Amino acid sequence: MGGRSFKLPHAFFTLLVLVHSMRLALGGFIPGVGDANNISCPEGERQALLEFKKGISDPYGWLSFWGSEEEKKNCCNWPGIRCSNQTGRVIQLQLGFDYLGGMISPSLLELPYLTYLDLSNNDFNHSYIPEFIGSLSNLEHLDLSSSNLSGPIPYQLGNLSRLQYLDLSSSNLSGPIPHQLGNLSRLQYLHLGDNNLTESENLEWLSHMSSIEYLYLSFTNLSVANDWLEVVSSLPNLKNLDMSACNLRLSSFSQFNHSKSFTSLESLQLRDNEINDIPKFSGDICTLCELGLSGNNLNGQLIEHINDLSGCAKDSLEVLELARNQLWGSLPDFALFPSLKGIYLSSNKLNGTMPKTIGNLHNLEHLDVSLNYLQDVISEAHFSNLSRLLSLDLSGNSLTLEFDFNWVPPFQLDKLYLRSCKLGPRFPNWIRTQRNVTILDISNAQISDTVPAEWFANLPPKLVSLNISSNQIHGQLPNVSTMSLSELRFDLSANRLEGPLPLFSTDVSSLNLSKNRFRGHFHLFVKSMMGIWVF
Ligand SMILES: *[C@@H]1O[C@H](CO)[C@@H](O)[C@H](O)[C@H]1NC(C)=O
Ligand SMILES: *[C@@H]1O[C@H](CO)[C@@H](O)[C@H](O)[C@H]1NC(C)=O
Ligand SMILES: *[C@@H]1O[C@H](CO)[C@@H](O)[C@H](O)[C@H]1NC(C)=O
Ligand SMILES: *[C@@H]1O[C@H](CO)[C@@H](O)[C@H](O)[C@H]1NC(C)=O
Ligand SMILES: *[C@@H]1O[C@H](CO)[C@@H](O)[C@H](O)[C@H]1NC(C)=O
Ligand SMILES: *[C@@H]1O[C@H](CO)[C@@H](O)[C@H](O)[C@H]1NC(C)=O
Ligand SMILES: *[C@@H]1O[C@H](CO)[C@@H](O)[C@H](O)[C@H]1NC(C)=O
Ligand SMILES: *[C@@H]1O[C@H](CO)[C@@H](O)[C@H](O)[C@H]1NC(C)=O
Ligand SMILES: *[C@@H]1O[C@H](CO)[C@@H](O)[C@H](O)[C@H]1NC(C)=O
Ligand SMILES: *[C@@H]1O[C@H](CO)[C@@H](O)[C@H](O)[C@H]1NC(C)=O
Ligand SMILES: *[C@@H]1O[C@H](CO)[C@@H](O)[C@H](O)[C@H]1NC(C)=O
Ligand SMILES: *[C@@H]1O[C@H](CO)[C@@H](O)[C@H](O)[C@H]1NC(C)=O
Question: Any idea where the Leucine-rich repeat-containing N-terminal plant-type domain is (predicted)?
Answer without folding.
Answer: 44-84
